[in-house]
Amino acid sequence: MISLRHVSTTFPAARGEDPIRAVDAVSLEIPQGSIQGIIGFSGAGKSTLLRNINLLERPTAGAVHVAGTELTALDGEALRRARHHIGMIFQGFNLVNNLTVAQNVELSLKFAEVSEKAERRRRVAEALAIVDLADRAETYPAQLSGGQKQRVAIARALATRPQVLLCDEPTSALDPATTATVLQYLADVNRDLGITVVIVTHEMEVIKALADHVAVMEDGRVVERFPAAELDREDFAPRTAIGEYLAGGGIRVDRGGRAAADVAAPEQTDRAEQTEQAAAHDSHQLSEVVG
Ligand SMILES: Nc1ncnc2c1ncn2[C@@H]1O[C@H](COP(=O)(O)OP(=O)(O)OP(=O)(O)O)[C@@H](O)[C@H]1O
């Protein structure tokens, strides 16, 4: 369904510095209808790799296939059309504050050139029903909780009936109870609609709750992969120090190679500040995604 072959993304160097190889020769096959988790510390290249899938960030090398189409061979109108099969949600929700919930969801249909108003209305109702927000259609984002906003964002992504849903840290701005609700909706969407889900996170709890397969990233590379069910096995031992650290929730075990104790813990930044930064970053990308 999704196939990444030797995908690399290098950002130009700041003055006097080396170019940043954010994604380094990643090959990954994601089966249709599965949920793929991508985990790693901040700066590992997770978001860039996710944005490589819909070419929001065009890879500097390698090939991306989605549902049999090589996206890396497309540009312009053909790429825009292919992207309608790929929905995306972000940490900062990216709702337009002066539009109602229904109008926010309708946006993606307008960009997808669903020209008939009655059809758009039907699809908005269908998408809002999936996330149980039909009764909130006429309210504004400011009147919603964080979890409800993310559910509207999910509805907006689903309105074009995509085959793939890309999720960039979708629950990082939410408390644990709301996180569980949003993850449940993503699981339902995957099961009921057969949508392939790719979720980037730095929380193994999110992976445990939702994913079928896990890819661990470090320094732009996928350093380890395993089925998420392995995480429930008591004797499961990730191969890499970073995998060990993430799977163990911070418990460090020296297994002979590079000591896990050498792995730096992720930087803790204030959640509100992180959310604000993510929202600013995400909003740059909204028009491209829904377009
Ligand atoms: N547009 C850009 N221009 C220059 N460098 C970038 C750009 N986007 C990302 N990078 C750099 O690429 C590397 C990978 O970034 P990326 O955001 O993909 O990592 P991440 O694992 O998603 O981190 P986080 O969890 O903090 O979002 C980082 O060093 C980052 O600073």
UniProtKB/TrEMBL annotation:
Biased composition (Basic and acidic residues): 268-285
The protein's name: ABC transporter domain-containing protein
SMART domains per UniProt: AAA
Family annotation (Pfam families): ABC_tran (PF00005)
PANTHER family: AMINO ACID IMPORT ATP-BINDING PROTEIN (PTHR43166), METHIONINE IMPORT ATP-BINDING PROTEIN METN (PTHR43166:SF30)
InterPro entries in alphabetical order: AAA+_ATPase, ABC_transporter-like_ATP-bd, ABC_transporter-like_CS, MetN_ABC_transporter-like, P-loop_NTPase
Stretch list, region Disordered: 258-291
